[in-house]
Amino acid sequence: MIKKIILRSGSLRMGGLERVLVEVLQTIDIKKYKIILFIEDDSGKENIFLKDIPKEIKIYFLKSENLMRKTEFYRNNRENFFYRIMYNIYMELEKKIILKNTKKYIKEIGEVDLFIDYDWGAVKYIEKLKLKKTIVWIHNSIPNLLKKASKIKRFGKNLEKYDKIIAICNEMKNELENIYPNLKGKVEKIYNPFNFERIKKLSEDKSQLTTYEKQMIKEEYIVAISRLDTVQKDYLTLLKAFKILKDNKINKKLYIVGNGPNENDIKKMVKELELEEKVEFIGLTKNPYVWIKNSILFVHSSKYEGLPTVLIEAMICNKIVVSSDCPTGPREILDNGKCGILYPVGDYKKLADELIKILKDKEKMNALLIKLIKRREEFNKITIIKQYEELIEQEINIKLKRAGEKN
């Protein structure tokens, strides 16, 4: 009998987690499993990955685009007292609608063998669904994301409601078990899967570039790709480091690929540091790989991460990575700095120093390249999806065994 699995996540907008979700759905054996996709946000035209979902997978959106946009409007205008109240009202309304629709769709689908909460968005109401078997995926460092001790403690209590917890790297697994000792035995590690062939093919594809971009890509540049956010992604450190490169007459450009809530703030930093001629904003693109492929280096400046997929994508494109040694992911991906370069979080002088040294040392770049080619194979989708399927079989078989014992 084909196993029925609900996989729930937040959105199909552009993002690292969303790219991983699509990779899983495109690779997992949909002849063996009936996958039903629950997506929280119907983001309309921003559902950039919607067309990449296999047609055999039915998609349910848990809240409408209209509701999402209203909540978004009030959130963005919370300095107004009335809008702040409205934002709180709409947040509560969203929670009720999401839970109501989730229950309704599960009833419509019938008995479910496994519920996978892929971005832990169902953590506050998972027990209300009365499911037989549940798995939750953790994609971020919990202390860095939640920060407050009370929130971290409450989150741990919610995690106890799941049968299995999956961390996407060993650092994160160890972190979870250290914070929540009672979860030991429930946490496993599975890396995110990557489609090497697709990434390599896209890295060679310049067909979507404008005439101006085709000229830009011929320049000597370092590339950074992320959500444009000044808290987690720490663009101030990156730009200060690049200012040092400029002052040292290193004639390389910095291309920033992506969009986000703090784009204007980052552009203001560029202006204040007098880097307008050195920094280019590429914007949002579905094919960042062509920009990685044609760069000299890939640079990453986050304060915290989960398992930053873009570092692995850079390695697949044969690019040396210079990254902050943030929790969690970069150190593990770069094998403790054996196949890439790590610098202390927030240390722009050290970042500048590492960039200057590696740009002048072709021999070291070649040595790192040899090591990263070997290391990246551990993230190949063929290896990883086998682990996904083994996990699914294991958890469903446990459920069936327990049901048999009761009978």
Please report the distance between the alpha carbons of the first and last residues. Answer: 20 Å
The shape, in one word, is: globular
Average residue pLDDT: 92
With strands numbered from the N-terminus, the spatial order across the biggest sheet is 3-2-1-4-5-6-7
Question: CATH homologous superfamily name of the largest domain?
Answer: Glycogen Phosphorylase B
Number of helices: 16
**What's the Cα radius of gyration?**
22 Å
Strand content: 15-25%
* DSSP helix fraction: 40-55%
CATH top-level class of the largest domain: Alpha Beta
Q: Which structural category fits the helices and strands?
A: alpha/beta
List the helices and strands in order. EHEEHHEEHHEHEHHEHEHEHEHEHEHHH
* Largest sheet properties: 7 strands, parallel
Outline of the structure:
46% of the residues lie in helices and 16% in strands. With 407 residues, the protein is α/β, with parallel strands linked by helices.
Q: Topology of this structure?
A:
Elements: E1 3-9, H1 16-27, E2 33-41, E3 58-63, H2 65-76, H3 81-109, E4 114-117, E5 134-138, H4 142-146, H5 149-159, E6 164-167, H6 170-179, E7 187-189, H7 196-203, H8 211-216, E8 221-225, H9 235-247, E9 253-257, H10 263-272, E10 279-283, H11 289-293, E11 297-300, H12 309-316, E12 321-324, H13 330-333, E13 341-343, H14 348-360, H15 362-375, H16 381-406
Parallel strand pairs: 1-2, 1-4, 2-3, 4-5, 5-6, 6-7, 8-9, 8-11, 9-10, 11-12, 12-13
Helix pairs in contact: 2-3, 9-14
